[in-house]
Amino acid sequence: MAEHVRVRFAPSPTGKVHIGNIRAAIFNWLYARSVGGEFLLRVEDTDLERSTPEAIQTLMDCMRWLGLNWDGEVFYQTSQREHHLEVAQMLLDKGYAYKENKGGQGECVIFRMPTEGTIEFDDLVKGHMKKQAKDTQDFVIVRSDGSPVFHLANVLDDITQGVTHIIRGDDHVENTFKHIMLFKAIGAPVPKYAHLPMIVNNAGKPYSKRDGSAFVGEFKELGYLPDTLFNFLALLGWAPGDDREIMTREEMVAAFGFDKCKASPARFDMKKLLWMNGEYIARQPVAEYQKAFDERLVAAGLPVEPLGGCKDELLPQLQGRTKTYADLPGPFACFFTEDYLFEEKAVTSRLKVDGMPELLETLAQKFADAPAFEVSPLEAMIKAYGEERGDKGMGPLVHPIRVAVSGGMTGIGLFEMLVALGRDRTVARLRTVAQRLREGSL
Ligand code: GLU
Question: What is the pLDDT of residues 252-299, one digit of tens each?
């Protein structure tokens, strides 16, 4: 009969949920869902000062936001304290542990590690792992104040919850050698282990908050979608084995397996995350995009209707160019207000150029006279004018036009932008900018 898989996410809530921890939750969730097993949530709340009700709430909010639905009731470690202490007594009675008064602080209970032979296990990600018993040390399982230590509580709760596979970060590998001996002393089957590779920065060093955002809540605030973060973190240590990167949860569940998990460090590539978020935003229903965009416009004190109207035509174009909601309205403000911001760098490099006011006036007149104010004819007109001037490519004309009408260098295609703004607005903006350049007020 196939084994019934039970895995758990066992965070120690601290108020902020680190991406490394939530990556472990995602791998547990994917594995459980891929084999029809259970995904349990155990709150390791033994550190009462940090595991406040707010910290636990934050943790659960993060999990819900990411769609990490768990099975059954939440299991609280502190509810097991008596059981932990009973087993510690059993280990003392059987000689697996002893008492010692360390540094005169009172007696603590210490687990006896073997002194000969090896401790070994087959890690589902890292392969065969082995340690000489003589290189291990006895360790405390109950402190002198009578509180059970992480190692004891963690192992006992895994036994109580019937956990079959322990999937966690590889910072726990050293603990695993201890835990295996505890399982054996207690007479419980040793679960299977999968230690996930460390998450590193571009320099190959452990990823930390100095490298950028490190907590789930920060990514949420920065405008990342939960599906993006889920997908991105799932790929930190796993790959489906083909070229796919953007995948639905169902696709990830179907493709997930430890055989495709990597033991080598997983690089946290912020650029890739941003790209991925843009892909997810582009795939959202336009109504969802509109809702998020409208909220940002209101927050920026801008109207939600574009100056040139045609919101239904404009929005899908902007949606395809949005990397995170936090960037909005950003370069798109020019569609909603005459009071758009000019980027200093763009102004200096593209507008503060000899002869620019005259050029902008000429262009304004060409736009005013253009027979059809539509993308292709406008583009053809500007191209022809560039050739007439002897320009190399269209850059010398399109860049100044873009900066003049939008304030910056990014956004949607220039001619699409002009059409969305409309003829009158385009002409007026070019003339205003020409004037401000002459006055030196830009
Ligand atoms: N509370 C531990 C942690 O967050 C649990 C580790 C484990 O999954 O066993 O690191």
Answer: 999 999 999 999 999 999 999 999 999 999 999 999 999 999 999 999
Q: Are 22 and 199 in contact (CB under 8 A)?
A: no
Buried b / exposed e across 328-366, counting CB within 10 Å, b at 16+? Answer: bbbbbbbbbbeebebbeebbeebbeeeebbebbbbbbeb
State the distance from the centre of ligand 1 to the C-alpha of 374, rounded, in angstroms: 60
Measured by CA distance, the residue closest to atom 6 of ligand 1 is: 10
Q: Which residue has the tokens 């909005």?
A: 328
C-alpha–C-alpha distance, residues 330 and 349, integer Å = 20
The residues with which 148 forms a beta bridge, in sequence order, are: 142
DSSP string, 294-307: HHHHHHTT--SS-T
The lowest-confidence range among 1-5, 240-244, 406-410 is 1-5
How many separate helices (H) and strands (E) can be counted in the chain?
17, 12
Query: What is the position in ligand 1's atom list of the atom closest to the CA of 11?
Result: 4
- Residue 106 pLDDT > 60: yes
Ligand 1 center–CA 308 separation, angstroms: 55
Q: What global pTM score does this model have?
A: 0.90
Residue nearest to atom 3 of ligand 1 (CA): 11
Nearest residue (CA) to ligand 1, atom 10: 11
Nearest CA to ligand 1 atom 5: 10
Q: How many CA atoms lie within 13 A of 415 on its CB side?
A: 15
Query: How many residues are given for the chain?
Result: 442
Residue 167 alpha carbon, nearest atom of ligand 1: 8
Q: What is the mean pLDDT of the chain?
A: 96
Find the 28 Cα to ligand 1 centroid distance in Å.
Answer: 12
- Expressed in angstroms and rounded, the spacing between residue 37 Cα and the centre of ligand 1 is 20
